[in-house]
Amino acid sequence: MGFGVTAGVKSREARCAPDPLLWPRLVVVGLATFASINGLSGCKRSVSNTPVGPAIEIHAPLGLPPVPIPADNPPTADTIALGRMLFYDKRLSRDNSIACSSCHKPELDFSDHVPVALGVSGKVGVRNAPTIENAAYLPFQFWDGRASSLELQAASPISNPTEMDQPHEVSVAKLAKVPGYAEMFRKAFGTSDVTIERVEKAIASFERTVLVGDSAFDRYQYGGLKTALTPDQVRGLEVFKDPHRGNCAACHSIGPDSALFTDGKFHNTGEGVSEDGIITDMGRYHETKVQTDTGAFMTPTLRNIANTAPYMHDGKLKTLQDVVDFYAGEGNSNPFLDREMKSIALTGQDRRDLVEFMKSLSGSLPPNVGPPENGAGSTSK
Q: 216-359, superfamily in CATH?
């Protein structure tokens, strides 16, 4: 996402600066007239997009590390409440038909159970909508990593023509007319002004609260409760970690004190490669133009993976058994296949145990992440 100045169009600073040729006139008519001229040119006072009010701590459940927080967007009760409202507000789409929550449904663990995302007017996207659960920990957002923060991710679908299809300035204007939002923005940011940067920060702060841990695995691994896993799941965990069998932990990492089940990196697993070896989606290469990134996608978290089918960036694998079988078959060969994609020996029992282990990664959602009962964004009109 670039913010350069278009050739032939002056920056806001240049447009707001007084023309030297106007100074004699300004002496005559006074500063009031200059202020009027300045206002007619479209110049606006700048507003702070920094949250106000005391920052609060977002508590990570068992099995997760402390939540990383950007210095310029400390979470407050008011920014989180505002972000929650915006996340469920359909007015952020062109025809008021979909919200962020349309592809990230809380009842489906913030996924949507369809192969690829659907936008306004039934527009069909090209990739599966990943869950936002534990997205706070990712160094990049989206399958191709085109956003480096939750803040940059938050507003992208709003203006994307195949998703919510609404220019940011239109969203800002619509929200400014909604009764109740003025007070929410004032509490969150100090004034009632609506800006897309404030929208981004509020949604990002809300999304940082959508954390899932304290699963049966966490209670077994980090809580010391050795009865938390079934015998099948214990065997599956060993297969998962064994580099000569599952080799899953090479990308879906497990640490000594916490486990994100993602390394936050990009890998070409061969998924999305046609039978004749043609890569159907360039993945990370779209962003970096680095040849070795061809067909590489972000490692997804496995938290609540049993509840977020279908799988992979294109949603082509319908079940966890399909995923295990795919990796057991070494993926699809192509010139950019990740070096971790190697031959693994899995028995039928190993495969069943792996599936059972992944079911043990399901945890409960925290309170107050579902649709707000009422407020500024409770209607989609």
A: Cytochrome c-like domain (1.10.760.10)
